[in-house]
């Protein structure tokens, strides 16, 4: 059974190092102490904490963890999941058309990003919007 340092565990849980240390001091997190007095957490304890906070890992996250790959959560609330309908690349940029319900959303990202994400037609993807202003328009009869 592998043991994680507090820093490694905090990354996996998506909380700060100091937050996890406070949980340990309060006794809400089970740890093992090394001979030097350092706290270590088991994989089982990480899973228990994720489940307790309603963040049970998905199958993909479990596979990523087993491979040692990171998965991330994002704070953006404006997220739309859809299906990649089309990818057009030219030079450094790519245009991605994502079908979200009966609507089409188009984004321009770098070609490198498309390759890094391994995007292809038919994949499920999430569009994340960040905006400080939203405007609403209505057609009027003049």
UniProtKB/TrEMBL annotation:
The keyword Acetylation does not apply. Gene3D superfamilies: 1.10.1660.10, 2.40.50.100. GO terms for molecular function: DNA binding. The keyword Chloroplast does not apply. GO terms for biological process: molybdate ion transport. SUPFAM superfamilies: MOP-like (SSF50331), Putative DNA-binding domain (SSF46955). Keywords: Molybdenum. Residues 73-138 form the Mop domain. InterPro entries: DNA-bd_dom_put_sf, HTH_17, Mo/tungstate-bd_C_term_dom, Mop_domain, SinI_DNA-bd, Transp-assoc_OB_typ1. NCBIfam families: excise, Mop. This is Mop domain-containing protein. It comes from marine metagenome.
């Amino acid at each position: 059974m592998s043991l994680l340092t507090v820093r490694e565990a905090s990354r996996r849980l998506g909380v700060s190092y100091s937050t996890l240390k406070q949980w340990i001091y309060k006794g809400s997190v089970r740890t093992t102490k090394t001979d030097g007095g350092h706290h270590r957490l088991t994989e089982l304890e990480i899973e228990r904490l994720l489940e307790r906070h309603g963040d049970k890992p998905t199958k993909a996250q479990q596979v990523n963890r087993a491979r040692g790959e990171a998965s991330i959560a994002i704070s953006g609330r404006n997220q739309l999941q859809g299906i990649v309908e089309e990818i057009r690349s030219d030079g450094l940029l790519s245009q991605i058309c994502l079908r979200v319900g009966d609507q089409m959303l188009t984004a321009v990202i770098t070609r490198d990003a498309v390759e890094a994400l391994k995007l292809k037609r038919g994949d499920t993807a999430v569009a994340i919007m960040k905006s400080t202003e939203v405007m609403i328009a209505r057609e009027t009869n003049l």
